[in-house]
């Protein structure tokens, strides 16, 4: 089941990521940097509002889920999410009244938050119940709809607000498969006792997700105000691509392996979950190490293929920093940060998020005015690294996500050897050719295959051995 679930999620995330990259390539060619930067600026406000209002109920649900009370828990979560979207509308209206955003943009932000809430909420409930096919279908469907609807509105109007509305509609429509899978539970009655349990566990997440959402957008808000939306367009486009690339795998691991480990922990405690979590840590290490090497080696090719000409120079200037930030984000969010689901409290997440916010905000205020987007990227790297360290240290009860450090060291050393081999090929050749690119990719893939075989990642090596024995 572990291999099947993980491969299903990785496959759907992979297809979704490919389509999202196609969307990015199309959008950055249809829209000038100023227009796309304006879209990212409005989206940043939507993400902050969503994080402050609508995220905590669904994560509390995952942490406290009990099969025996499933209908009551789902009914309660749905009512809580409905209340939160109402609160989001009030906050957006207040922001428009203060003049922070225009009224039209505020309305689009609320619709965007609604789309995120419906999609993420439906997928979280389906994921918790191990409805793999429905979640995978939603992921792919959303990517298809974003590409189609987004391209259409850019060709029709070219406005940033319209692009945000198109992505919101895509989220709403893509939520249909998981909503159908959990349909019988949606008729469940709400419960005040369940609501109190969710709130008792989740109230630190209100602060946590609000801080995290602001931390992950504050650099963009400062860039938009002090440097300009044109620079923000290049910075945000490449940053989103890298983040999406690592999130594809990190989120798949969390959806599959961590969900299974959580079920094991419910039945047998943390010791029962440890083998699954250590497998997840090894897989995460392979993705972080070899993914980082890939982007460091081929960042120039990726930027040329992915981004329009107006975006390329600025993106390449901050590529190494953004790669490091994406790796730390993946490790923090999708492995070490998952510790809160095995703990009795979510306070550690709040501490990590506040650390992230304070670090990125302080460094962005200091570094962006003199150094522009390079200063922003530096602030994000350091913020993500410090927040990750908070989770590694663990909570007061001593619960920590297990890490097979010796195996991780071997994986890191192998990835470094691959990077040095690729660098030697680049230094020995007069220029990058098709032959050298193929050779470099073969070296990288050989390293990945060796680690996957050595540690039987996803059980593939064991399956091959059993097949040979038969």
Keywords:
membrane, mainly alpha, 470 residues, 0% strand, single chain, Poly_Biosynth_Transport, transmembrane
Describe the structure concisely.
This protein has 19 helices and no strands. By secondary structure, it is an all-alpha fold.
Give the percentage of residues in beta strands. Answer: under 5%
Q: Considering DSSP H and I runs of 4 or more, what fraction of the residues is helical?
A: over 70%
Termini gap: 21 Å
Largest sheet: none
Give, in order, the helices and strands: HHHHHHHHHHHHHHHHHHH
Average pLDDT, rounded to a whole number, is 82
- The stretches of 5 or more residues where confidence is low (pLDDT under 50) are none
Outline the fold blueprint:
Blueprint: H1 2-30, H2 33-53, H3 56-64, H4 70-98, H5 103-128, H6 132-156, H7 160-174, H8 176-181, H9 183-186, H10 192-226, H11 229-268, H12 270-306, H13 312-317, H14 319-334, H15 347-371, H16 373-393, H17 405-428, H18 434-454, H19 460-469
Transmembrane segments: 7-30, 36-56, 77-97, 103-122, 134-157, 163-186, 198-218, 282-308, 314-336, 348-367, 373-393, 405-425, 437-464
InterPro entries: Poly_Biosynth_Transport
Keywords: Cell membrane, Membrane, Transmembrane, Transmembrane helix
């Amino acid at each position: 089941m572990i291999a099947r679930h993980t491969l299903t999620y990785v496959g759907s995330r992979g297809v979704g990521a490919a389509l999202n990259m196609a969307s990015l390539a199309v959008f950055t060619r249809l829209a000038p940097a100023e227009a796309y930067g304006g879209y990212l600026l409005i989206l940043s406000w939507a993400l902050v509002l969503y994080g402050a209002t609508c995220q905590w109920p669904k994560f509390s649900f995952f942490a406290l889920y009990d099969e025996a009370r499933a209908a009551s828990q789902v009914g309660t979560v749905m009512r809580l999410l409905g209340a939160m979207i109402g609160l989001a509308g009030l906050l957006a209206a207040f922001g428009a009244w203060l003049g922070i955003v225009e009224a039209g943009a505020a309305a689009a932000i609320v619709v965007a938050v609604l789309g995120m809430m419906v999609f993420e909420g439906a997928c979280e409930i389906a994921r918790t119940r191990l409805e793999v096919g429905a979640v995978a279908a939603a992921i792919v469907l959303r990517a298809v709809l974003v590409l189609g609807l987004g391209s259409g509105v850019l060709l029709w109007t070219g406005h940033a607000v319209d692009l945000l509305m198109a992505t919101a509609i895509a989220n709403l429509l893509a939520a249909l498969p998981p909503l159908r899978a959990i349909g019988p539970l949606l008729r469940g009655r709400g419960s005040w006792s369940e609501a109190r349990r969710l709130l008792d566990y989740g109230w630190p997440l209100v602060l946590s997700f609000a801080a995290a959402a602001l931390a992950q957008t504050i650099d963009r808000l400062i860039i938009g105000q002090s440097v300009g939306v044109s620079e923000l367009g290049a910075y945000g486009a490449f940053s989103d691509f890298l983040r999406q690339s690592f999130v594809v795998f990190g989120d798949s691991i969390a959806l599959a392996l961590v969900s299974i480990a959580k079920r094991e922990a419910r039945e047998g405690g943390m010791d029962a979950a440890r083998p699954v979590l250590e497998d997840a840590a090894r897989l995460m290490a392979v993705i972080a190490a070899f993914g980082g090497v890939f982007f460091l080696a081929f960042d120039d090719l990726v930027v040329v293929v992915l981004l329009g000409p107006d975006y390329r120079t600025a993106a390449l200037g901050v590529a190494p920093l953004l790669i490091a930030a994406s790796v730390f984000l993946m490790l923090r969010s999708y492995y070490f940060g998952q510790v809160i689901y095995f703990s009795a409290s979510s306070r550690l997440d709040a501490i990590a998020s506040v650390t992230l916010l304070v670090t990125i905000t302080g460094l962005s205020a200091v570094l962006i005015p003199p150094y522009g987007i390079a200063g922003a990227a530096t602030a994000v790297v350091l913020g993500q690294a410090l927040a990750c360290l908070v989770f590694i240290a663990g909570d007061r009860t001593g619960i920590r996500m297990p890490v097979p450090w010796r195996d991780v060291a071997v994986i890191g050393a192998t990835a470094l050897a691959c990077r040095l081999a690729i660098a030697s090929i680049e230094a020995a050749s007069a220029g990058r050719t098709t032959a050298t690119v193929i050779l470099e990719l073969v070296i990288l893939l050989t390293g990945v295959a060796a680690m996957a075989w050595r540690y039987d990642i996803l059980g593939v090596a064991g399956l091959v051995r059993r097949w040979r024995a038969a």
